[in-house]
């Protein structure tokens, strides 16, 4: 049988663990949402740079092409993640050019998103970069994911810009690791604090237990000191003391009756009848015949005062 202290501690620790898990889950979702929004902004910010790099500023053959404020000069810097990918596909779906920013400028990409023909066919013409829809696609060969934006030009060519999830996933892994460590440490500290609080809260019950043990050993004068009516333990202590008072009074009355009976028995002698001795003690003796020809004897004495010796 599990003790009350253990059950309370297990219940409290379970609730704390559940609360920490829910908090960690909410934090993880909030961080993931923020990082995904930042990743989308990085894709949109990389679009004009990739466009200038791949098209070389020559867009006269694209009558529906719209010039962006950042189209003046290609630039790669810390604003764009290493691994950002850009590619130009012709109207037949063939990749005709690609690039990826590196520490020293444009370089050949080491990872590519898996761009499908259906994705190229669904690319919008002259989309608003601020509101254009982005896709999440796997990398060629697996092992990574990309956030991808596609734009179709008037001649059917499609520009694809993608940023890998690698940095976002690394950040989420770090956040998860920190949450696990912090939550575990907090759970240990809160569990220890809960144990101390529960132990202090149940201390009056321990005192009641010790008092009951002394009463069981024969000391009926013991009483519980925790009698605050404003607490459950205090009300239990009051009820316990009331019960002890009644029990002690019953024991005193029984002891007094036994003493009077012993004095009565000692007072009976060959020269004195039982009736006379009973009358001298304020009582009476009753004889009742039985059907078999015998008789029963009943001695009635007044109820003794428990406080009398």
TrEMBL record:
EC class (word): transferase
Enzyme Commission number(s) from the entry: 2.7.13.3
Keywords: Kinase, Membrane, Phosphoprotein, Transferase, Transmembrane, Transmembrane helix, Two-component regulatory system
Record's keyword annotation contains Signal: no
InterPro entries in the cross-refs: HAMP_dom (IPR003660), TCS_sensor_his_kinase (IPR050428)
Biological process, per Gene Ontology: phosphorelay signal transduction system
Any one of the GO CC terms: plasma membrane
All residue ranges annotated as the HAMP domain in the record: 199-252
Pfam families, alphabetized: HAMP (PF00672)
Transmembrane segments: 180-198
Reactions accelerated catalytically: ATP + protein L-histidine = ADP + protein N-phospho-L-histidine
Sequence segments annotated as region (Disordered): 280-309
Gene Ontology terms for molecular function: protein histidine kinase activity
Protein name: histidine kinase
Organism per entry: Parafrankia soli
């Amino acid at each position: 049988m599990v003790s009350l202290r253990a059950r309370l501690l297990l219940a409290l620790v379970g609730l704390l663990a559940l609360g920490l898990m829910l908090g960690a889950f909410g934090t993880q979702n909030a961080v993931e949402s923020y990082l995904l929004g930042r990743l989308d902004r990085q894709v949109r910010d990389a679009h004009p740079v990739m466009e200038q790099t791949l098209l070389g500023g020559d867009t006269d053959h694209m009558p529906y092409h719209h010039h962006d404020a950042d189209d003046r000069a290609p630039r790669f810097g810390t604003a764009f993640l290493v691994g950002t990918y850009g590619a130009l596909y012709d109207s037949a779906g063939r990749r005709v050019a690609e690039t990826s920013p590196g520490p020293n400028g444009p370089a050949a990409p080491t990872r590519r998103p898996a761009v499908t023909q259906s994705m190229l066919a669904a690319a919008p013409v002259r989309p608003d970069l601020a509101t254009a829809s982005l896709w999440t696609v796997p990398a060629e060969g697996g092992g990574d994911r990309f956030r991808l934006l596609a734009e179709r030009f008037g001649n059917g060519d499609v520009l694809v810009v993608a940023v890998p999830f690698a940095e976002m996933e690394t950040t989420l892994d770090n956040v998860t690791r920190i949450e696990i460590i912090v939550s575990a440490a907090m759970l240990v500290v809160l569990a220890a604090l809960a144990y101390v609080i529960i132990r202090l809260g149940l201390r009056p019950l321990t005192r009641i237990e010790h008092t009951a043990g002394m009463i069981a050993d024969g000391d009926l004068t013991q009483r519980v000191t925790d009698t605050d009516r404003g607490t459950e333990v205090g009300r239990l202590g009051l009820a316990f003391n009331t019960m002890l008072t009644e029990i002690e009074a019953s024991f005193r009355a029984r002891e007094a009756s036994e003493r009077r009976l012993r004095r009565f028995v000692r007072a009976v002698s060959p020269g004195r009848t039982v009736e006379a001795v009973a009358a001298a003690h304020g009582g009476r003796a009753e004889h009742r015949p039985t059907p078999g020809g015998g008789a029963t004897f009943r001695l009635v004495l007044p109820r003794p005062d428990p406080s009398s010796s």
